Amino acid sequence: MDFLSALINGLSSGGTYAIIALGYTMVYGIAKMLNFAHGDVIMVGGYTMFLTLMALGHPLVALAAATVFCVILGVTIERLAYRPLRGASPLAVLITAIGVSFLLQSLAQIIFGSSPKMLVQLQISGGITLGALSIDYSTLLTLAVTAVVMVVLSLFVKYSKTGRAMVAVSEDRDAALLMGVNTNAIIAITFAIGSALAAIAGYLMLCKAPSLSNTMGAMPGIKAFTAAVIGGIGSIPGAMLGGILLGVVESISYSVPALAPFTDAVEFSILILVLLVRPSGILGKMRREKV
Amino acid sequence: MADLKKNPFVAEDGREIVLKADHLCIQFGGLKAVDDVNLSIRRGELYGLIGPNGAGKTTVFNLLTGVYKPTSGRFFLCGKDLTGKAPAEINRCGIARTFQNIRLFGNLTVAENVMVGLGNQIPCSLFESMFRLPRHFKAEAEYRKKAMELLEVFHLAEYADHLAQNLPYGKQRKLEIARAMATNPTLLLLDEPAAGMNPNETQELMDVISFIRQRFGITILLIEHDMRLVSGICEQLTVLNFGTELAKGDTASVLNDPNVIKAYIGE
Questions:
Q1: Euclidean distance between CA atoms B28 and B63, whole angstroms
Q2: A121: confidence class by pLDDT, cuts 50, 70, 90
Q3: Which residues lie below 8 Å from residue A273, measured CB to CB, with a gap of 6+?
Q4: Which residue intervals of chain B bear CATH 3.40.50.300?
Q5: Superfamily designation of domain B17-94+185-267
Q6: Does the pLDDT of residue A290 top 60, yes or no?
Q7: Sign of the C-alpha dihedral computed for residues B213, B76, B221 and B48 taken in this order
Q8: Residue A156 is nearest to which of B91, B117, B129, comparing CB atoms?
Q9: By CB count within 10 A, which of A23, A44, B99, B192 is most buried?
């Protein structure tokens, strides 16, 4: 039973990682850059929810406000910080992304202070009991939201004009441009989707643990990035798989007393192991150089 | 009645000039890659651009599709000045191209490649797609139908759901033309369509090109090294050498021009 409940909790936290990892992997696949500020968008979403809750009170209104604000933020970051660097060296873009990350964290600290805020209005307590197994409502909610996000996003990418244009841009940006695809718009849409997902992930995290600080996005961000790399960065199913795998490993490791203190180490070891066997991730494309 | 000022976009024989390029130049550092190239291509014409390797042919294509901005000179499609516009915009104005090295979207299916080319021709907003409103499904069905019609024309319909990267080489070339045609161009630029093809595939390609000219009435500008193909289907030629025009005119006279023979074969 312990194992089963660890598994269910793992699927749930893995779902949150997967939702964040989707933001990393889509931006990498389409804009060919690592957006290290992605985790901090979650945090900005959290503070947006905090402010909306103070003004209006309802958690769903707060979620909606956070989603809208994160989309605006994501698109603005892309427009101001990343688009001018299109065509610059990947290193310059990477460092810019890290800079944006520090900027967001520091701004939040200046505005809201460094002591954590409690968002008890968001917390969902209680759960259901099935025999010896008890599952929190927040866990069930996360599982349901993850499933919906994955299905909708997969259908969107596979069966819509914009989705096809996204794949086309990720395959060959110049060819897509010459086929009339507005690549700047497609990249902006990708950032918008990633940021909306970040807001949703932030909401799910705060339902479980309603403590909000300016660094709340950092660790989940790094773990989700790890998940995206494990799954094969650039691959959407890969991010989903990697996120869930990482969540399950984390939860099971946490439930074993001997491993519990080393949970983070266990998680990142999985990354090393996967990369040793499959350098491009589980579902990543293995490219063999043609000679 | 006094003569009206001559319209620059009508040829002497009264046919409309679809593409007019005036004094196109581009300079990379100290190198003039294309120097004073002039083109005027009439509606429905199949125009060839030939020349030795490195003569600047693909650079001309890159200028005409907005990949490079000309250092000086202008070009017009059906009288509309497209100089300096972005590639996606030029494509929407009616110039589509294929590539010297095949650049399909390998992990999309054959039908999806064409559907990307169809672009915004069927209205459906991002919002409608996201939330899967009725118009999304109508638009998707329409896209699929249009793509299949085009694939029928190119005899690729049976491969519609194969990944583009799994097609044989000759069919990939055809798919690239189909994808370019999907953007509904007035002028189609083909960059060495027969490169790497065997004689059978080249013949098949020539048939496809003649067929799309009849069916869509499209104007084509073509870069090619295969002289059999050039002399077989091109009506007019421009020969480039070191970025400048060496000769131009109808195919037979250009191919017999001693300067052209010298540039290709040497003295």
A1: 13
A2: confident
A3: none
A4: 17-94+185-267
A5: P-loop containing nucleotide triphosphate hydrolases (3.40.50.300)
A6: no
A7: positive
A8: B129
A9: A23
- How far does CA A3 lie from the centroid of its chain? 26
Residues A196-218, mean pLDDT to the nearest whole number:
93
- By the 8 A CB rule, do B238 and B39 touch? yes
Q: What is the pLDDT of residue A85?
A: 93
pLDDT(A291) > 80: no
Q: What is the ipTM of this complex?
A: 0.76
Q: What angle do CA B93, B192, B47 make, to 5 degrees?
A: 60
Residue A112, Cβ neighbours under 10 Å: how many? 18
DSSP state, residue A35: -
Residues 207-266 of B with CB under 8 A from A: none
Please tell me the distance from the alpha carbon of residue A187 to that of residue B144, in angstroms, as a whole number: 24
Give dist(CA A170, CA A242) in Å, integer. Answer: 20
Closest chain A residue to B86, measured at CA: A177
CB–CB contact B143 A167 (8 Å)? no
| DSSP-assigned letter for residue A71 | H
Instruction: Give me the amino acid identity at A214.
Output: N
pLDDT value of position B2? 46
Q: What is the mean pLDDT of each run of 10 residues along chain B (267 residues)?
A: 64 86 91 91 93 89 93 92 92 92 92 90 80 85 92 92 92 92 93 88 88 90 87 90 90 87 75
Whose tokens are 């244009």? That residue is A165
- The reported pLDDT for the residue numbered A241 is 94
Q: Which two tokens stand for residue B169?
A: 């080489």
The structure tokens listed for B235 are 């009506």
Going along chain A from its start, the domains and CATH numbers come out as 2-277 (1.10.3470)
CB pairs under 8 A between A and B: 86
**B182 contacts B147 by C-beta, under 8 angstroms:** yes
